[in-house]
Design goal:
Blueprint lengths: L21 H18 L3 E2 L5 E3 H9 L3 H5 L2 E4 L5 E4 L4 H10 L9 E10 L11 E10 L4 H17 L6 E6 L6 H15 L5 H9 L1 H4 L8 H5 L10 H16 L5 E2 L11 E8 L8 E7 L3 H4 L7 E7 H14 L11 E5 L5 H13 L4 E3 L6 H10 L4 E5 L1 H6 L1 E6 L5 E5 L3 H11 L2
Helix pairs in contact: 1-5, 5-10
The chain binds one RNA strand through helix 3, strand 6, strand 10, strand 11 and helix 12.
Length: about 425
RNA sequence: GUGAGCGUAGCUCAGCUGGUAGAGCGCCAGACUGUGGAUCUGGACGUCGCGGGUUCGAAUCCCGUCGCUCACCCCA
């Protein structure tokens, strides 16, 4: 896209600048998330972007792709190995343990918004610096937590206009029942391996669960016949999974049991889920999450079961834009409420004073630093999408009444100089 | 890490089988000396990503390189 000069510095591969007006959409989505989180009594936590490398090796899993080849890891000057966080759940649990939040008892419901880093090859919906909006409920293994959190997500997606997305739900069991399933799966794969696609033949050895996720058409019948985790769940896990499903049904939250849904992080237990949205390209999962009952202990803390999710904000933005386009809606680009057009040296002070007063009322104002021709002022006002233009020239100063022009209707009225702020403030309230 | 496609004006792009750059939009100015979004006229802006090669001559062909994009892998 952009050509580059030899001597010009540009953003690091896989990172990008978010510019207005797009940042307005990001802000809106984040504000809606904060509002919903507050409604469910989640509170914000801010953890460092930099963490000791060991944190992720122990939580995400030393053998996962994320840890093996996707982390930004470097040695600090004192030789400590540091890593730019590839995800935030590990950090939240680390903070939970470090600050002894478990001593307060009860449930801790936390959310975060911020950048994560993974050194992958960038493509649509996947960047090296990407943003996640996530939440974690720590301190209970009750299925009601899973259900409540999914209900919260359901509301959030509705607020974002993404009610058409699909919730995929599965259970990956626990350290007691999963090993047995993996043995059964490996045994079954041994028998059919040579009939699978090349990728799956490799996965069958390196990561058998991944075979279940294969999208190759020809493999589907074989995959369908493989053993399913659902048939291997221990009684406790089975009961938990059923409680989550019936809870969702009771609340009218649609979901699909996705027996083949597996997640790439080692810490997940029992409930795992993903929400996919069409037309996002190959990266169609806008959010994923699940339960991680053993994570706290893996990090040296006390037992503290948890449930959480992370939304890929970059993908969320893509999905929202896509949904808006499909519904013929469009984000309205909002300009300032008022543009002040002033002519002649005598208007300098009155114009500046009006601008200051309006701004002190939190009304957005644009004003030229130098006097310019009215025709040009109106051109600028129109270009920046100002709702009103206030005209201050010789005649207005003499009469003590400024012209207020509504830029959408073109109507113009004279308003007492002393009344302008009040009149515009009222109008701003009626404007969407 | 692997593969494919693409790098021409601020943006979107055209430029056939090599003859040394164009359109639309945008921007600036004027028609219209205090009334915008329309129209018309004029104007500014390009080391054709970079380096090398072939050739009388390269935006165009070849090689290399850098960058971007999409896909695989994996994941948000």
């Amino acid at each position: 896209m952009a050509s580059q000069r030899l001597d010009s510095i540009q953003a690091v591969k896989g990172t990008r600048d978010l510019l207005p007006p797009e940042t307005a959409l990001w802000q809106r989505l984040e504000e809606e998330a904060r509002r919903v989180f507050r409604a469910y009594n989640f509170h914000e936590i801010r953890t460092p972007i930099l963490e000791p490398t060991g944190l992720f090796a122990r939580s995400v899993g030393a053998d996962t792709d994320i840890v093996m080849k996707e982390m930004y890891t470097f040695r600090d000057r004192d030789d400590e190995s540091l890593t730019l966080r590839p995800e935030a759940t590990a950090s939240v649990v680390r903070a939970f343990i470090e600050h002894r939040l478990f001593n307060e008892g009860g449930l801790h419901k936390l959310y975060y918004i911020g950048p994560m880093f993974r050194r992958e090859r960038p493509q649509k919906g996947r960047y090296r610096q990407f943003y996640q909006i996530g939440a974690e409920a720590l301190g209970s293994d009750h299925p009601a937590i899973d259900v409540e959190t999914l209900e919260m997500l359901h509301l959030l997606l509705e607020r974002w206009g993404l009610e058409e997305s699909t919730l995929l739900l599965n259970s990956v069991g626990c350290p007691r029942c999963r090993p047995e399933y993996l043995r059964a799966l490996r045994r079954a794969l041994d028998g059919v391996r040579d009939k699978l696609c090349a990728d799956c033949q490799r996965r069958a050895v390196t990561n058998p669960l991944r075979v279940l996720d294969c999208k190759v058409e020809a493999d589907q019948p074989i995959i369908e016949a493989l053993p399913r985790m659902a048939d291997f769940l221990c009684p406790e896990c089975r009961q938990h999974f059923e409680a989550v499903q019936s809870g969702l049904r009771e609340r009218g939250i649609a979901f699909q049991h996705a027996p083949r849904l597996v997640r790439g992080l080692d810490y997940y237990t029992r409930t795992t889920f993903e929400i996919v949205s069409g037309a996002l390209g190959a990266q169609n999962a806008i959010l994923g999450g699940g339960r991680y009952d053993g994570l706290s202990e893996m990090l040296g803390g006390p037992p503290a079961p948890g449930f959480g999710f992370a939304i890929g904000e970059d993908r969320l933005v893509l999905a929202v834009k896509e949904a808006q386009a499909r519904q013929g809606r469009e984000e309205i680009e909002s300009g300032p409420l008022v543009y002040i057009a002033w002519m002649g040296e005598a208007a300098t002070d009155p114009a500046a004073k009006l601008a200051r007063e309006l701004r002190r009322q939190n009304l957005s104002v644009e004003i030229s630093p130098t006097p310019i021709k009215l025709k040009k002022s109106l051109g600028i006002a129109s270009k920046v999408k100002a709702r009103f233009t206030v005209i201050i020239g010789e005649g207005e100063l003499a009469g003590g009444r400024y012209q207020v022009k509504d830029m959408t209707t073109g109507q113009q009225t004279a308003v007492e100089a002393g009344q302008i702020v009040q009149v515009l403030r009222q109008n701003s309230a009626t404007v969407a």
